[in-house]
Write a structure and sequence with these properties.
The chain has about 200 residues and is of the alpha+beta class. It has a single domain, classed as Metalloenzyme, LuxS/M16 peptidase-like (Cytochrome Bc1 Complex, Chain A, domain 1, 2-Layer Sandwich), CATH 3.30.830. It is about 45% helix and about 20% strand. The longest helix has 22 residues.
Length: about 200
């Protein structure tokens, strides 16, 4: 890796990637990858960001929350070669991790690492997105977390956000925006690991 890259903030934009199934909104699937180097000589940290044009609006009807669950399995579910526990152990001495942010139309995977550790971090970061493990135990764990968020956290601890969701349901009834990004308790109960794999493949 050349010195310029090691002293840069790397932004990876995967724009135009629509993960949609037949029941999703009709969108053409296209992929483009652009790499932007934004030099910050005094900053030894490198920020990686992968932006996908896919969000909860792409959830198939009756499977609300599928985008959230699928992308959560990428960010916190391990790869084909490494379990999430093994990844955590490798990331710990690097002071690194992978974060996911998701809304109606976009998902962002991001991570920050010291430039000296980029060569150790990036291959794992890449494989988490391109070669997910999709293990049953991770699926059950993250699906349970998602249901707990809907049943407990959102309802009991986030009054303002819960109020916004009620308003959102009223405004967008029958529209792809008309459900919480995490889906509904009823729709989550129906989701299977095969649903996740199919959504990722699409």
């Amino acid at each position: 890796m050349n010195p310029q890259m090691k002293s840069a903030v790397i932004v990876l934009l995967a724009a135009g990637l629509a993960l949609a199934t037949g029941a999703c909104a009709k969108k053409q699937t296209s992929v483009s990858l652009a790499t932007e180097l934004l030099p910050v000589p005094s900053n030894p940290l490198i920020d990686l960001r992968v932006v996908l044009r896919v969000g909860s609006a792409n959830d198939p009807a009756g499977k609300e929350g599928l985008a959230w669950l699928t992308l959560s399995l990428l960010a916190d579910g391990g790869t084909k070669d490494l379990t999430i526990k093994q990844i955590t152990e490798k990331f710990f001495p690097l002071a690194a991790g992978v974060r996911l942010s998701l809304d109606k139309e976009m998902a962002v995977f991001s991570g920050t690492v010291h430039k000296d550790n980029l060569d150790k971090y990036y291959p794992i970061f890449r494989d988490m997105l391109l070669n997910p493990g999709f293990r049953e135990e991770d699926f059950i764990r993250l699906k349970t977390d998602q249901m707990n968020y809907l049943e407990k956290t959102l309802v009991n601890d986030m009054d303002e956000d819960f109020g916004k969701e009620i308003l959102n349901l009223a405004l967008y009834e029958g529209h792809p925006y008309g459900h919480q990004e995490a889906g509904t308790v009823e729709s989550l109960k129906r989701l299977t690991l095969d649903d996740v794999k199919a959504f990722y493949k699409a």
